Each structure stands twice: as structure tokens, then as C-alpha cells.
User: Fold this.
Amino acid sequence: MLHNQMNDSEQLFQSAKAAFECCAQSMCLTTELPYSEIVEQVPPDLAGAYLTLVADQGSVIIGIVSDRKGLEFLTRTMLGMEPSDDEVEIADIADAMGELANVWGGQYKTDLASELQNIRIGLPMFAHGRIDAPRTSHTRIFKLVIDVIPVFIYISESLDEPVARKSDRSGKAA
Assistant:
């Protein structure tokens, strides 16, 4: 299992973080995202969008989670709304976070295309509270701060084979 191969697993997570940073930049979010800590689990009172990528070797679940203030901030930023605009409806937040997860998933799929076969992207799911990863998966949750807003990046992999990252071959991060 990949989760027993720490170097491969670390590269998988670094790739997921890099894909998120690329996604954030394309959505006009801050480009310098300091990952302040790795946490054990997403706090249960938060909400966010999760997306599953499935390949022949297994699956990866990615998610972006925050509190209501953080979700509204991300939604307003993505939609070009001013802070003084009307309150952001939960349906708009779910749509925006689902789109953010889709863009992130698309970037991540591109990054993994040469290492995993037949990658398929599922539909984003918006959820309140935390989700539990399968027991066979290796999950990491990164807490980062965007404009003083805490945001959690969720990455859970359950793959059967080690992934040889592009950075292994070129010496550069993918």
C-alpha cells in the first residue's frame, strides 16, 4: 500500500498541495499559502467541499473546509463580490466550493496523469461536519490561513501501488 511508502506518500501530498496553490492562484486567492500546521482531523463544526479522484490503483479524496466566515470569504473572492454585497447564500457557497474542488481536482488529475492509470474525477460533495476516511487510507489535513481565515486542506489517499512522481525523475517539484 502507498501509505507504507512514506517518500511516495509525501510526494503525493506535496503534489496535492501544489495543485491547490495553483488552483488558488487561478481563483485570485493569495498565492503565498503558509501551511501553519498539520492537524489530526477537521473540526466537526466546519463545512466544505470534497472530491474523489479514482484510478486503477485506488482513490484520492481532496477537500477544502472552513467555517462560515471562511467559506463566505472564499465564495466572495471567487465570484468577485464586495464585502458590502448581500449575504452569501449557502447554495452559492456550496456551488463555489464545489467549483474550487473541481478546479483543484482537475489540476491534481493533470499532475498525476503519467503516474496513475484511468483517473476519473467524481462529483464534488458539500458537507457539514467532518467525514471519516476509510481505514485503509492515509489522510493528512493541513491548516492554512488565507487573509486571517483558517482553511483546512484535506487529502486522503488509498492506493495499491507507489506513485513515481515527476519530481523523482527531474529533480524538480511537479
Observations:
- Residues 92 and 146 are 20 Å apart (CA to CA).
- The domain at 2-161 is CATH 3.40.1550.10 (Chemotaxis protein chec).
- The helical segments are 6-26, 68-79, 90-112, 166-170.
- The chain has a mean pLDDT of 76.
